[in-house]
């Protein structure tokens, strides 16, 4: 599918080198179709890397998508230029009167603190409340998934004895659900987090269904029964080298960091890791866009 993104966005050059179909506004406006409007709340520190990862996955369908990036107004990002934020991002105050077909809320490296202690928690809860009426479907990733579970369903996060860090096997609880249509019975996905969501609390909820689970990494794909919220506790969007970059960053800081499990060939950090989850990442995003956004959103919002 073509994705309509700003001409100067750095991710545009990365995607074009990969032969991913991107277009500018002038070309997009001449297509006589109703594009989907997707809003991405990017809470990750390395925003440009996350932009490219998500846009790459959103490109894998025949639908045209207009993508907008949202940032928090109550938190100052330190790993991205002010120019980049002002050029390519907007704030909630500017868009809260609009409606979106789909939204993605990313992870954030703040698992070690209670949700309420995040400096943008009040703003995030306002945004999450707004999605109930202004967004057709919300895809929440890692910390974003935990925040969604906590705010909407009262399910907390719990500290792990050691970091869940690596690539793990997952199985499906119900392969007939549209979101996981086409998935293998066993597949791989990366995780990188210090906290977990308890399987027992998800199964006990009258509002949630557990779609996929890992014996090592715990619950992975969770969906609300009204199909409004989809929660991924891991990172299918990660590149092959993302966990390696996290490991090297922490090792260079002198932190006692563990080698990601089931990741480096022979558990040797000098070896190049392979992306063994790419096909399922593309499949999940394509299923989300088709079945939970495109098929459910009105052609014209009231």
TrEMBL record:
EC number: 2.3.1.31
Entry GO terms, CC: cytoplasm
Binding site for substrate: 163, 192, 249
Site residues, Important for substrate specificity: 192
Pfam families assigned: HTS
Feature type site, description Important for acyl-CoA specificity: 111
Active site residues according to the UniProt entry: 142, 235, 237
Presence of the UniProt keyword Oxidoreductase in the record: no
Keywords assigned: Acyltransferase, Amino-acid biosynthesis, Cytoplasm, Methionine biosynthesis, Transferase
UniProt GO MF annotations: homoserine O-acetyltransferase activity; homoserine O-succinyltransferase activity
The family this protein is said to belong to: Belongs to the MetA family.
PANTHER family: HOMOSERINE O-SUCCINYLTRANSFERASE (PTHR20919:SF0)
Record's protein name: Homoserine O-acetyltransferase
Organism: Scopulibacillus darangshiensis
Upper taxonomic lineage: Bacteria, Bacillati, Bacillota, Bacilli, Bacillales
